[in-house]
Amino acid sequence: MSKLNARMEQMEGGTKANRIFCLSVPQEALLDVACSLASNTQTLKVRNRIIIVKHSGLDAVSSHQLTQSLLSSFDEKQIYRIDHLLGRNIIENLTVLRFSNLVFEPLWSRRYIRNVQIILSEELGAQMQGRDIVHSHILQMIVLHAVELPISLDGEDTRNEKVKVLRSIRRLDLSDCTLMQFKDSSEDKVNVLMNSQTPTFFAAALYIDNAHWDGVPFLIKAGMGLIKHGVEIRIQFNHVPGNWYREHIGHNIDLATNELILRDAPDEAILVKVNNKIPGLGLQLDALDLSLMETTIFS
């Protein structure tokens, strides 16, 4: 790290340049790298910042220990914790859709939304390793869906509203979850998880106990070693009360539920599922997906 410090001083050439360190390193190496940076590369001339990509510990105890260790070397205002998934276009669009469109904003509550489904699936392959998907990626996605409009886009105001949601989430017991582990029985593939006890599939219903979301289940499904890679949020609205066309929808009324779908993978898309009359002399309804995103803007 002393060589790094000397190199930065050479590049700065005596000017007052802020120093920002982004640590995208394995969790077991995080503290060693952070402490070494704190001891050898901080300067009193300018601002020093450290960015930690996603890591927040493996459980409540390790998360607290990690935070305390970082605070022994850095002030809280120097530490930035980021989740790379939240930088995706679709995830960033979630709050934009909510707060900048009158067509959605009044509908965003328990009165109109029946459930919210958050699905993250990964295929077989090299990516099959321990990942803190639920308490990192998915929890952040739930918070962005349920957060109230902050008084400004300032980071502190946004953080305060997100904390309110986190404090309102009902305690999730292990008995309320479904945990499974991928096992590959084929002879031509190596099961990289054979000696691990870490679950590779998780499903649960999460509830937020506040006036806005009371009774609305947030259905989480996350797994590795599945058929395909996919990341999507499905916001399913309530049925239309006294729907005159109920008998023309088909045997399964759930197929006619309006949905807002934000899909990041395999194909990026924002879709609204609406009911539409099938052309012809009869009166039969079918679901139609309306795209809200021009794919060319992301090419």
TrEMBL record:
The keyword Lipid biosynthesis does not apply. It holds the Pfam family G6PD_N. Coiled coil: none annotated. GO terms for biological process: glucose metabolic process; pentose-phosphate shunt. Residues 2-93 form the Glucose-6-phosphate dehydrogenase NAD-binding domain. InterPro entries: G6P_DH (IPR001282), G6P_DH_C (IPR022675), G6P_DH_NAD-bd (IPR022674), NAD(P)-bd_dom_sf (IPR036291). Keywords: Carbohydrate metabolism, Glucose metabolism, NADP. It comes from the Eukaryota. The keyword Protease does not apply. One of its GO terms (molecular function) is glucose-6-phosphate dehydrogenase activity. Residues 96-294 form the Glucose-6-phosphate dehydrogenase C-terminal domain. Belongs to the glucose-6-phosphate dehydrogenase family. This is Glucose-6-phosphate dehydrogenase, NAD-binding.
